[in-house]
Amino acid sequence: MRTVATAGHVDHGKSALVLALTGTDPDRFPEEKARGLTIDLGFAFTTLPSGREIGFVDVPGHVRFVKNMLAGVGAVDVALLVVAANEGWMPQTEEHVRILDLLDVRHGVIALTKAALVDAQTVDLVRLELEDRLADTAAAGWPVVVCDAPTGRGLDELRSALDAVLAAAPPPVDVGRPRLWVDRVFSARGAGTVVTGTLTGGPLEVDADVVVEPGGHRARIRRIESRHERVEVAVPGSRVACNLAGVASEDVARGAAVVRPGQWHTVQLVDVALRAVAGEGFPRRARVQAHVGSGEHEGRLRLLDEHGTLGRLHLAAPLPLVPGDRVVLRSSGRQATLGGAVVLDLTPAPRPADARARCALPLGARVMAAHPWLRPDAGAPLTGWPDARRRLVAAGHAVEAGGWLVAREALDAARAHAVRAVRGRPAGSPGVEVATLAAELGLDPARMRAVLGHEPALVTEHGLVREAGGAVADDPAARALLDALDARPFDPPAPADVGASPALVRALVHAGALVDLGDVVWSAAAFARARSLVADALHERGALSVGEVRDLLGSSRRHVVPLLARLDAEGVTRRRGDLRVAGPRAGDRPG
After folding, report:
1. pLDDT tens digits, residue range 459-484?
2. Could you give all domains of the chain from N- to C-terminal order, each with its CATH number?
3. Which in 26, 109, 408, 514 has the greatest CB count within 10 A?
């Protein structure tokens, strides 16, 4: 199914034409039927000669109901512009065409209605006027069909023209990220909350979990109908009604969006490209009515440049938006259409100068400038690309590092800082701690390790970063510590007493050069020698006390107690009261 919205001046016959094409009167309310004036959106369905199903969204043409018209056209990409042959171009024809142009609706048909009321010469004159008026709009070149709903004249030609336009138009976009802008909500007896709208972006299935924004209301799709028929899956481009479980109808309003959890970035503040309609302009600061999707939202607009082409829009409610979304801006006071906006940046830079520079970048570079460190699954909500990870990397805007997408400039700057810090460390220092580098760059240690993994000039060993090309034990400070410990193997000095840092000790422990016994540190060679001496003595004597081990090694109780605790844990010794006996691994020898 494809959805087509009507457009055009009041009393030009939009609803009558839809009724003639579908057999359904789109005017839903008694007052509409009584007055012959469409007030709100109407809906009808039919099948074209090709077999293609089509849903109409019939919009009001009166100037007082422009916001309702906008609710109907905000999610469609094909329009049926209706112009009465007996009146020709009128004020709301002008405004509706402007709105379609601002929304970039590029495909449509023009129905020249009420042809039975005028002669052929008048029809030709109106055709020429339309050609001139539409020359610089997205509707230029749309086929024009002369028709008359009461008599049936031209209706078959109009159906064929709609068929041809829909066949030539690009198919509805399906990026697997559905968004249903709600244009009607009601509570049905026995069913609960029902919302309707034109589905875009991806399919929705029965039993799918969804979120209604604004508000973050969680819900489940209990039932879906399209063209008054129950379906299991609704596809993009179709008119759908969704029965939602878990959310009250009073918590949903026209202009809300039904989306999947986690797929959209919900924002209130966006930077936008601006385009004013002819004869209008944007004040430097103004309150506006921002029409997004099917909704009208209070907003504040602030210009960011001197030419009125870039602005910052602050919405009253957070909405699920993506770069490329189109917004129609109307004056809050005069109720006039000022122009349109295209969303550029979902996370604007605080300073206007930075915002201008960022918005001039391609989309991928723009997103990475705002988010130098980005989780791969966060790329799609910020760009609208389902394959954002691949595209950002392929275009050179990001580098994959440690489970992150990192802006190339940010990664290069962090690597250069790390190299400078390591090469500039004090003499005798074995390296720089990862945590220190991370703090200097405002990163967490996990991101810092991702940076270091891309720098071949540096080596990270258990929290210590040094230059590549040598082992930790080859560092002068490390050599000095090992020499001091080897000079007194079984009664070693504390590392701090010989000027060794905790980071150096950790690095040497992880490198296997030292053994951390908890309260004291021994060289690996001294520990292995002590282990062998204790095992041999147990073989000869059967049991040893702490004092006997102390005398055997020429050590002190301060060093022997943690040594024996380690030997107990390794199974070399086993404690029996105040004595140690041989454990199951007493016969093992290191190496």
Report:
1. 776 677 777 655 666 667 788 888 88
2. 2-168 (3.40.50.300), 179-259 (2.40.30.10), 265-360 (2.40.30.10), 476-582 (1.10.10.10)
3. 514
